[in-house]
Write the structure tokens for this entry.
Amino acid sequence: MRASRQHWVYESIVALACWAASSAWAQAPAESLCLADEPVVFACSVEGKIVSLCRAASPAQGLSYRFGKPAAVELRYPQPGQRARPAFTVKTEPLIGGGITRVAFQRGGYTYTVYSRVGRAQDGAMPEFEDGITVERRGKLLRHLRCEDGGAGFREPLEQNK
């Protein structure tokens, strides 16, 4: 009897530890590509890579966008040393039961948009959250990547970047 009680206690502790770890993992914010002195405005994982929108340490420099992996950033905007403030556009529009905020920039004929959307679910009971990025060229959607980790929306106010 004593051995089965110990076994039950051990299984309960292991199950509780696994549940706690999975809950913490599911709620943990995405890793970002922002530098240590840059506040993270937006970050999420897409297709095994990270999308980050960072606020520069100096307010005069505005936002910066990075896409890739920590060891291999594939796209940086603006390039180091360039000023980005007038290049980003911020748009917010209401939706039934929520809204959508978009931060976009243009580079080389492409428009990159980081977005966060909250809307009413089809059943009307729970809101739906969606974060991601889109890439367009001449108004045609080329890529739509949704955050795999759910994202955390915009973590910093965007009013400073209009």
